[in-house]
Structure formats: C-alpha cells, structure tokens
Amino acid sequence: MQNTRQRRLSAAHGADWFRLTRHDEPEPADPPTPAPEADPAPDPADPDPEGADQLGDKGKQALDRMKAEKAEARRAAAAEKKRADDLARKVAEFEDRDKTELDKATDKAQRLAEQAAKATKRAVLAEVKAAAAAFADPEDAAAFLDLKSYANDDGEIDTESITADLEALLERKPHLRRPAPEVPRPPAPKPDPGQGARPEAPATDFRTASRADLEAELSKAVPGFRLRA
What we know:
Helices cover 52% and strands 0% of the residues.
C-alpha cells in the first residue's frame, strides 16, 4: 500500500500536477526537451593502432570509445583556444581604448602644463617689473634676466633672487638706471610793495617853498649855498 502511494506521488511530480498558475495567464507550454549532445565523430586522421583489425567486438568498441574521447578532448581544447583568443582580443580592445584615453589625458596634461608655465612667466614678469623701480624702463630689466630661473616646479617665485639680480644688473649696466630727479629751484619771492622803490617827492615849488626848503634844494646843486638875509 505504501509503495503504491509513493509511485502515485512520483507520477504526480513527474506529470507536474502541482504547478500553480494565474487564471488570467495562458497555459504555459512545456519546455522542449534538449537533444542529447552527440558524441564527437572520430577523427579520420587518427589511424587505428596496429593490430586493430585483429580485435574482437569488445576491443573494437573500446577502441572507438578511446578515439571518441580523443576527439572530444580536441574539441574541448579548440573551444578553450577560441575562448582564449576572444579574451585576448577583448583585452587588446580594452588596451587600445585605454591607450586612447591615456593619450587624451596626456594631451590634456600637456596643455595644462603649458598654461601653468605661461601663467608663472607672467607672474615672474610682474615681480621683476615691481622690483625694477630703479630702472629707467622696467622692460629692460626683464630683457636681461632669465625669467624661468626664478620659479620652481610648484610655481613658487624667488623674489629675493630677483632683487639681487636686478641690483647686480644695475652695477654692470649703470646706464639702465633711472636718472635722479632734478631738485626743483625754489620760486622767486614776489616783490613786497612795502620794500620796493617809492615814488619820488614832487619838485619844490620855489614860489611857495619856505626859506629852509629853498636853501636845501639849492644846496644840492651848489653845496654850501645860503640865501642872503
């Protein structure tokens, strides 16, 4: 009785009686049964060993199995080689893609380095002009100096070296120095009307002048002149 029940349950599982489906779903079709993988055909280039024609039926069957196993091994090896070749091709594609990205990154880094170098050069030139106050033309100071030598790889500028080199340059080429400004002359003082020439006194009128004024005036022309009493 128990064996009969087990057989019925096994048959039920085999028939897939317990599959649950929704009422609004179509009845699922049974999946197709995969075809069994065919045994690889013997390689015609693989000759039979010596004495194979003398083998019996069992020996020939064993020989066929051996040849089939060798063919299967060759097929598996060919498949593995194909997968390896495909993987190598994908690796090469990734390397080429990465190489392209690397080239782009290299070009971008080079452009950024050039831009940074130009910006550093402008900064050094500004420092040189600021320190070249003693030069008649600050452009002359920049023309005689190697601007690249005053900045390191981090873009830091050595202002002390700039100042020292500018002083040494003026010692070697004093004609580049700015001329000393002329001392302005003090303005001439304006004349003081109280200290200037005064208008002359009017001439003495002999008709109305007193005797003393008349004698003083005549004594200018004739020293010691005295009027008679």
